[in-house]
Amino acid sequence: MAGRYLLDAPELALEHAQAAGRRGGRIAAVREATGIAAYEAGDFALALKELRTFRRMTGAEVHLPLMVDCERALGRLDKAVELATSEAVQSLEPGEKVELAIVLAGMRRDQGDAQGAVDALTIPQLDKNRGFAYSPRLFRAYAEALRGVGKDREALTWDRQAVVAEAALGTGQFAEPEIIDFDDEDETEQVPADGVALADSEEPAQGPADEPAPETAGAVAGADPAASPSGADGGEPGGDLDTGVDDESDGVLDDGADEEPDDEESDEGEGREQDLDPDDDFEGGSEADLDPDDDADLADPEAEDGNDGGPQHG
């Protein structure tokens, strides 16, 4: 539950983590969850305490960037620098090193050292041509540091490159809606170990759509001025051109017009043969009449009884 509420309600997540800690305080994962939830909730003293406990229990330095940031937030900059430059940094993964560099840049900026912030972010992971999960965040932090030293134009380039990285990675504004499937845990797409190739934002790529197609280019190059609506022959704009194609099409239309009456007659004939209720068309019915009782009702009963066909006199 702590992980579910971590981003939306960190205070509630911390309450769940502390409740778990009261029952399983000797479990490293519980102390880790409590430290992260406390960090997100802004309780940096508790977060530092829990993360230190997690490090002692496991020997892992994975949360070293958070610990450095907690020291900075508590105002102990010397402790933060000492921790950030310790030998434990060498065991961090590339993404964790990026987070630590961002924290160091923030510390330098708080101290008024704008160039120190730029230097802190100038790390091997700052590669404009390769994209990793941490690249958009690193690019934007570096752009902010460049603005601090007055390099606004270069900063804009890195901001654009952050968007390019998000598009290539499918993250940020290009991320797909998150659908959690508890049955298929291994189908999550992973970023390749060597990252993804990124285009340079300063040189927009030109696709095939930027070049005219061969047929189109040839048609434009070989266009006859006399064939245009306002050509050299003095014809009026929109006038009919005698190309020979219109005559053939007119003939086809004429032939089709002559055949239309035959089609209508054939349709009517077919309608009579397949008429399911001929009494609607004429009273006498037909041989294929499906309801002869209607014809008997139309006849005069008195005429049928004793009428030999001649006139009757009173």
Q: How are the elements arranged and paired?
A:
Blueprint (H helix, E strand, L loop, with lengths): L9 H15 L3 H14 L2 H15 L5 H10 L3 H8 L9 H17 L3 H8 L8 E2 L3 H14 L3 H18 L26 E2 L16 H8 L23 H29 L19 H6 L2 H4 L10
Antiparallel strand pairs: 1-2
Q: How would you characterize the overall build of this protein?
A:
The chain is mainly alpha-helical and 314 residues long. The chain has a domain at 114-176 and 192-204. The chain has 13 helices and 2 strands. Strands 1-2 form a two-stranded antiparallel ribbon. Helix 2 (28-41) runs antiparallel to helix 3 and helix 6 runs parallel beside helix 8 (135-148). The chain is globular.
Brief characterization of the structure:
The protein is mostly helical.
List its traits.
two-stranded antiparallel ribbon, mainly alpha
DSSP E strands, number: 2
- Cα(first) to Cα(last) distance is 108 Å
Strand order of the largest sheet: 1-2
State the major sheet: 2 strands, antiparallel
**Helix coverage percent:** 40-55%
Q: Class by helix and strand content?
A: mainly alpha
